[in-house]
Amino acid sequence: MEQRIEILTEKRLIGKRMKMTFSHNKTGDLWRGFMSRRKEIKTNTGIELYSMQLYPPMFFDNFSQDTEFEKWAAVEVKDFNNVPDDLETFTLEGGLYSVFLYKGSAAEGTSAFRYIIETWLPGSGYLLDNRPHFEILGEKYRNDSPDSEEEIWIPIKPGI
Questions:
Q1: Could you point out which of 40, 63, 75, 122 has its C-alpha 20 to 30 Å from the C-alpha of 33?
Q2: How far apart are CA 40 and CA 63, in angstroms?
Q3: How far is the C-alpha of 47 from the C-alpha of 70, rounded, in Å?
Q4: How far apart are CA 37 and CA 41, in angstroms?
Q5: Vertex 149, ends 143 and 155: CA angle to 5°?
Q6: What is the pLDDT of residue 71?
Q7: Is 52 helix (H, G, I), strand (E, B) or coil?
Q8: Candidates 3.40.50.300, 3.30.450.20, 3.30.559.10, 3.20.80.10; correct CATH number of 2-158?
């Protein structure tokens, strides 16, 4: 996987959110609900979709498939004027991220995340930061296709 370090600038997102666990993953339901409403959002800044996870502190230190987290399906917008009913806003704060270009099906994505958290991070000189994790699904994203591409953004901070 290609990897780079980036400083993210603040982003405004509009979307839907849902609480879930890895053992009771509701990602499909979340995205079906969001995609049926996506065209109502008129101030998009591009075509990219944001799949964002808000994990509680220490989520990865004591990892369990049953620990609840919040997941978002969203798009970036210019402003929060005219937010469609039943959709929500989120301001994604800027900061330091490690960005990985993942190529492959969503079904195989677990191994990429495991590599990032268990192998890359411990040897990187960085620590995981308690900010949102997200994936950017652009024009090369094809869901379960082996030719699909997406960017995985992991929040980091310099190691001590």
A1: 63
A2: 37
A3: 23
A4: 8
A5: 105
A6: 98
A7: strand
A8: 3.20.80.10
Give the model's pLDDT for residue 42: 93
C-alpha triplet 62, 108, 13: angle, nearest 5°: 70
Q: H or E stretch including 17?
A: strand 11-20
Checking if the pLDDT of 72 tops 90, the result is yes
Closest Cα partner for 54 from 129, 107, 157, 143?
A: 129
Judge residue 13's burial from the number of C-beta atoms within 10 Å of its C-beta, 0-12 exposed, 13-18 middle, 19 or more buried.
Answer: buried
Q: pTM score, two decimals? A: 0.94
**pLDDT at position 110:** 85
